[in-house]
Amino acid sequence: MPSTQQRRSAMTILTRSDTSHVATLTMTAPARLNALSTAMLSALHAELDRIADDATVRVVILRGAGRAFCAGHDLTELRDLRSQPDNGAAGLKTLFDRCAALMMRVQSLPQPVIAQVQGLATAAGCQLVATCDLAVASDDARFGVNGVNIGLFCSTPMVALTRNIPAKMAFEMLTTGRFLTADEAAQEGLVNRVVHADHLDRDTRALAETIAAKLPAAVRIGKAAFYAQARMSTAEAYAFTGAVMVENMALDATAEGIDAFLTKRSPDWPA
């Protein structure tokens, strides 16, 4: 595989570009504010599945084209599904289950995923930011779970949001439709850092390349352990992560890393 590649879906709603062990996925439906339609959910999930099996990819950047990162579910699609028999319950449940599966795929992916956020990240779009392992936001970004404004409480986005920010702030956002500014999102822990809009690509890329320079096997082991231990009691987590440390120490490349540190040289990681 060449060092740089591009793949475009048949519906041109998602593109992928790989450079120097970093895969950049761009949602390319700006007229719909990159809404998480059934097609977009399917395209994202399929591409993440491909990336999971691609040993050349060490980090993923997820971004949106146009003036928004992602405006959440496609309201036209939701309205059409609701018009089906029995208020479209079966179709709506399938859509929300598909969205949840995508969110869980982001966190089960071996590689870290960085959300690169400009403009709006609303409802399920805010959920996607909260789900990604890391997030860099431009100073013009805004974040909301504002479904309540149209009579639809953002119950599924709430899952990821409440695992990122304090409960009272999350509840205020959910019940009032209040948006967070980029700086507020950073203060509350929803994003890692805020940068000038002109530097968003550059600074997100710099973070990705910093991670990509680490031992890939260690990062993969660490990401899986990070989410697994969070679901355990403190005692269970220490027992589990102790075993993970033993597994990590058994890697030949880790021995190389330790030797390099002790001899004050750069480690020679495997390709």
Based on the model shown, name its key terms.
271 residues, alpha/beta, 2-enoyl-CoA Hydratase, Chain A, domain 1, Lyase 2-enoyl-coa Hydratase, Chain  A, domain 2, 2 domains, four-stranded mixed sheet, 11 strands, 48% helix, globular, disordered N terminus
Order of strands, main sheet, comes to: 1-2-3-4-6-8-11
Q: Would you identify the CATH architecture of the largest domain?
A: Alpha-Beta Complex
* Secondary structure: number of strands: 11
Strand-residue proportion: 15-25%
User: What's the CATH H-level homologous superfamily of the largest domain?
Assistant: 2-enoyl-CoA Hydratase, Chain A, domain 1
* Total number of distinct structural domains: 2
Mean of residue pLDDT?
A: 94
> What is the CATH topology descriptor of the largest domain?
2-enoyl-CoA Hydratase, Chain A, domain 1
N- to C-terminal separation? 14 Å
CATH class of the largest domain: Alpha Beta
Into which percent range does the helicity of residues fall?
Answer: 40-55%
- The ordered string of helix (H) and strand (E) elements is EEEHEEHHEEHEEHHEHEHHHH
Radius of gyration: 20 Å
- List unreliable stretches of 5+ residues: 1-6
Total helical elements:
11
Largest beta sheet, briefly?
A: 7 strands, mixed
List the helices and strands and how they pair.
Elements: E1 5-8, E2 14-19, E3 22-27, H1 38-52, E4 59-64, E5 68-70, H2 75-82, H3 89-108, E6 113-117, E7 120-122, H4 124-131, E8 134-138, E9 142-144, H5 155-161, H6 167-176, E10 179-181, H7 182-188, E11 193-195, H8 200-212, H9 216-230, H10 234-249, H11 252-262
Parallel strand pairs: 3-4, 4-6, 5-7, 6-8, 7-9, 8-11
Antiparallel strand pairs: 1-2, 2-3, 9-10
Helix pairs in contact: 1-3, 3-4, 4-5, 9-10
